[in-house]
Specification:
single chain, 105 residues, alpha+beta, three-stranded antiparallel beta sheet, 3 helices, 43% helix, binds zinc ion
Length: 105
């Protein structure tokens, strides 16, 4: 599994980290491709999502078994949070079509 930045399904252009990060605000909604202007739907990339949850949750799990000091706990998160921040654009893919039917009211 190689981490890749999202690619527009319409024009095939790979987005930059910054563009991808901005599009995260529209998680589960659509966003516009900065290159071709087509609507792109943000769909979570499951292995990436799983890894993120694992990374975010692991100190909590370790906390149950290892006698962490509060400082150690905070230090662990001080390391993990920037990693999560940097890796967040890698955990989704773009689709030209809506990945699931819209929610009916
Ligand atoms: Zn495009």
């Amino acid at each position: 599994m190689k981490p890749v930045l999202p690619t527009c399904e319409s024009c095939g252009t790979q987005w930059t980290w910054k563009q991808s990060f901005k599009a995260l605000r529209g998680f589960y909604m659509h966003t516009q491709c900065p290159y071709c202007g087509e609507s792109q739907f943000v769909t979570p990339y499951k292995p990436g999502l799983f890894l993120t949850f694992f990374l975010a949750g692991s100190p909590l799990i370790m906390f149950l078994f290892i006698d962490f000091t509060e400082l150690g706990f905070l230090t662990t998160y001080a390391v993990i949070l920037p990693i999560l921040f940097i890796s967040s654009p890698y955990i989704y893919r773009l689709k030209s079509k809506e990945p699931r039917p819209p929610i009916e009211n």
